Amino acid sequence: MSLSIDIHPTGKGSQRVTLAGRLDTHTYEDLDEALAPLMTRQLHSLVLDLSGLEYISSAGIRSIFKARKALAPHGGKVLLVNPQPQIQKVLDMVKAVPLNEIFSSTAEADAYLDVMQRKVLRAGEEDDD
Amino acid sequence: MQMRLFIPREHARVDDLNASLEAVLANNGVSRAIQCDVRLIVEELASNAIEHGDPTRVGAEEHELCVDIGIREHLLTLEFRESGAAFNPLDQPPPDLDADILDRPTGGLGLHLVRQVAEEAAYQRIGNYNVLRLTLRIPTEESDA
Description:
A: alpha/beta; 5-stranded mixed sheet; globular; B: 5-stranded antiparallel sheet
């Protein structure tokens, strides 16, 4: 079994990507390649749906770190949704994800993004130049 | 149950090794969770050996990685053996997990995971070989929460 990567249509600066299978030494390059063209200045959140991900190793964690570093300079975030117990355990062991960037469902992540989006809009109206 | 597997030092073969190990573990009634732990240990140690091993110091006939796996009652043991310069994976400094998440060095995560997942780990230099023995506890049906 390898990694399946499903890139959803982009919506309002947010991009959802569903991963299934294994994210490891053998597949992380596929993910890096798939994500690279999405990492634009316009992207403020990359939502990785991990419901179907069965296994992750340090190579996979480095891919998530890489995505986070690519988005950070313009304030973008990587959110993780519904990691299975093995995935959660590995993420915890290396403290890979701040707790506020991990969600139990896509609905929860969407609600969080809505709040963030409104904050950004409000900030934009306030310091409009 | 006790068996020994050899693979060439190639990333692609590590996946084959893990597929074989998974089949063996499943046949012995080992849970998915423990299968994942074993896969993680084997992948991290094998990748480390392949990426950091010095091929000039590895003799042609010793160019393989060797994994022994044993299951005895509630203990699963893994012995990982590779030739090359002496390297004790248990001696490496732990990664700085509390550094700012954006500045964190991403090296050392794999070996840290191995140390975390294994219940016990011991390193020995035997002749030209680095030998790492790891033990995992297999939860019994009753205690498997």
